[in-house]
Amino acid sequence: MSSRDKIALIMAGGQIIYKRAAEGETVPIEKEELSAYLAGETREKTYIVDWSRQPVCHYTLRMCSDLIQLAGSQVEEGAVGVVITCGTQALTEVAYFADLVWSYPQPLVFTASVNNAETPGSETALLLSQAAQAAASRVCWGQGALVCLQDKIYAASELCHFSNYSRIGYEAFPCGPIAEFSEPADFLISLRSLRRGRIMDIGTPPARNVEILDASLGGGDILLNALLDGRVSDLDGLVLAAFGGGDLPPSWVPLLRKVMRAEVPVVLASRCPAGRVQPDSDFEGCAKRLLDMGLISAGTLTPLQARIRLAVGVGAELSGQSLRVYMLDE
Fold this sequence. Notes:
The structure is a single chain. This protein folds into two domains: 7-190, Rossmann fold, CATH 3.40.50; 210-327, Rossmann fold. 29% of the residues lie in helices and 19% in strands. The mean pLDDT is 93. α3 crosses α4 and α4 packs parallel to α9 (303-315). The chain has 330 residues and is α/β, with parallel strands linked by helices. The chain is elongated. The longest helix has 16 residues, at 61-76. It starts with 6 loop residues before the first strand and ends with a helix.
């Protein structure tokens, strides 16, 4: 089937493309049957691409890169937009990665569901149709990677997942959705446009070994020491999910100096879901002293976002000041 002037629907997994079999087991919806879940007019304008159906917790950033390059190839072959189904557990991470490298004006829209396709309350048909409508809409043109959920369209760069079992388990900070459907199956209304930062080449291979270390009361020293004892040379980067505005236990400071001497970029992020690194205090382990020491600020990025952005930046061979600027290019 020609992709010219059509919407590409990539089946990349998630409960949204699984159904309950007669014996109660969960089975995948076959490519040939999925189009039945699309509204009539949308069905004619959409073609389906089957991709890996691995659980999203099996993904790596390199797999995400392969997926987004596949989406890009659909646009280059004539698709007017792309929809990707995804598991809810890491939807925000996959979509955020996509937003960092999606340079096409054609919309890239992710969608997901906590329910299987044929369970009571399933929204598979509605979500797939809404996502396809968004992918074909000028409202979403040039907005980067987007997520269709809850009768709304969210920016991938702003979406927060706060509940793993609720159908309304997502919110966007700080400004809410960028568009919404006037009624579940009606037209899409634009609420605002996005300002996007630097977009990397879609073929940029993300660094493999970027890790996150969470701050907790009196914790972390053993993990940092274990890292220094044998694996620090394997690191491409390290993100610290710090208290509040970016503060860490003082016992971490000498250990972090050793990590940095190994020329590993270390990024400081707030562990708060809607936090910001704020260097406005002065004591051992505070954000101000850590940044003065050479750590890189993540600004308003969450630790998960900072890890993905750092992996993309290092993969693009950014370092020093160019990497610092990229991490804050929100």
